[in-house]
Amino acid sequence: MIRRSVVLGCGGYLPKKIVTNDDLAKLVETSDEWIVKRTGIKARHIAGPDETTSEMALAAARAALADAKIEAKTVDLIVIATTTPDNTFPATAAKVQAKLGLERGFAFDVQAVCSGFVYALAVADNFIRLGQARTALVIGAETFSRLLDWNDRVTCVLFGDGAGALVLGVEEGRGDKSDRGILSTHLHSDGRYYDMLRTEGGPGTTGASGHVQMEGKEVFRHAVVRLAEVVDEALAANDMKPEEIDWLVPHQANQRIIDGTAKKLNMASERVVTTIAEHANTSAASIPLALAVAVKDGRIKRGQIVLLDAMGGGFTWGAALIRW
Length: 324
Known about the structure:
The structure is a single chain. The protein has helices at residues 21-24, 32-39, 53-68, 92-99, 116-129, 216-237, 255-264, 276-279, 286-296; strands at residues 2-13, 18-20, 43-45, 77-81, 106-110, 136-142, 162-173, 181-189, 197-199, 212-214, 247-250, 305-312, 316-323. Strands 1-7-6-4-5 form a five-stranded mixed beta sheet, sandwiched between helices. It folds into two domains: 2-173, 3-Layer(aba) Sandwich (Peroxisomal Thiolase, Chain A, domain 1); 181-323, Thiolase/Chalcone synthase (Peroxisomal Thiolase, Chain A, domain 1, 3-Layer(aba) Sandwich). Strand 12 and strand 13 (316-323) form a beta hairpin. The model has no long low-confidence stretch (mean pLDDT 97). The radius of gyration is 18 Å and the shape is globular. By secondary structure, the chain is an alpha/beta fold. Helix 3 (53-68) packs across helix 4 (92-99) and helix 6 (216-237) packs parallel to helix 7 (255-264).
């Protein structure tokens, strides 16, 4: 028997303010037709002036705890994936820990941009497997709009804000794909492509966070290849065939990338959870937000196989296979 990390609950939070493509067309030279055709995005949620990453993370965490029907005091690990922390330090996770009233356990952030949630999930899973934690909150939270140049029509149309969270617990499993919980996680990075998706500065260079810079065609090309590779890796690691997957829940970066991954798996669009039209790219928050939507509306059910995949700046990429 081995220890498995199992999903006990999930939740999400989106800011109230919605910005449509038509709204953006008033700011930059673009159109709803142009944005939808190239990305699949129709609208995005944008944080208010006083709305912070930690506040959105806290709201998502509370929603996930309520879904799990457990009290915050049982949590002994909080991992937040974010590129937009409240402060350079301390970790945003420490602020969420305090706001949940916790005086025990440990909390920290991870930063892998759009792959961040998969990275955070892998980290929490390993702590649970090793017996160093029993109940974990894994959160993806971003105020990505604050990294955007709203005069750059290439990048400002792509991103939105929000937060999503999973509560993980522990169960004993047999060590094969029949187990409930996280079956495997697979992480990669290649720093040779550091400059293709980045901000133009940071605390250690310019002293400011900077704006997003992206070589869109190269990012798209690498994403299609790397996501296909890591999906194959996850399936092979679990001796599983594509038809055994019930749901694909990908990072919501571009509808064409999502469609490409689904095509490789020979998955009908009805088995792919997509929120990109309404949420845009919320970076580390996109996968847990999509999970929260699909669980709430009843699509994802206990016992089903769920595949997560993501790619982000770095380049970073990864996948996780879960029996819900």
